[in-house]
Amino acid sequence: MERAFLFVNRFVCAVLLAASCTLVFANVVLRYGFGQSFAWAEEVSRYMVVWLAFLGSGLALRQGAHIAVETLPDALPEPAARLVRMLIVLLVTAFLVLLGWWGWDYAIFAWGQHSPVLRLSAGMVYLAVPVGCVLMLIHLALMAPGFVRQARSDEDKVTAAELGGAL
């Protein structure tokens, strides 16, 4: 079930990225090559990137690619380091629940506002925040036991740093 969840999350992110890149590229070619462009392309690609960022953030969390400062847990004896890692999981959980709640409230608040070109509800765009937070909470729940039990290896830290984050 976890593999299917990861596959679907990665697939949706890949489709959003490919569609956004294709749309922007096609619009640039049309604009500079033929003097025409799609009026809606910039708006749609922006919204796809917003959704991509929030849907992909759980995958980044799982890989350890978000910024992290691991100096304190690395300097502590293992029992104390486990407690620090558990505290980190609890704080991240609280933050995601709070952000998801506020994101939901804001999406509902903005539901009556519409985008300039396509007239889409702004709430549909802002729904990326609570949906992304729920996905991050699922990823966190799946990876937290291993994270709390054992510190990441130096090789895992290097891979995460190459992906974008750990100090």
UniProtKB/TrEMBL annotation:
UniProt keyword Zinc present: no
Record field: transmembrane: 45-62, 83-104, 124-148
Membrane topology: Multi-pass membrane protein
Principal subcellular localization: membrane
Domain spans labelled Tripartite ATP-independent periplasmic transporters DctQ component: 21-142
Alphabetized UniProt keyword annotations: Cell inner membrane, Cell membrane, Membrane, Transmembrane, Transmembrane helix, Transport
Cellular compartment(s): Cell inner membrane
InterPro entries: DctQ, TRAP_DctQ
Keyword Transport included in the entry's annotation: yes
Family under the similarity heading: Belongs to the TRAP transporter small permease family.
Task of the protein: Part of the tripartite ATP-independent periplasmic (TRAP) transport system.
Known partners and oligomeric status: The complex comprises the extracytoplasmic solute receptor protein and the two transmembrane proteins.
Protein name: TRAP transporter small permease protein
Source species: Roseomonas populi
Lineage: Bacteria, Pseudomonadati, Pseudomonadota, Alphaproteobacteria, Acetobacterales
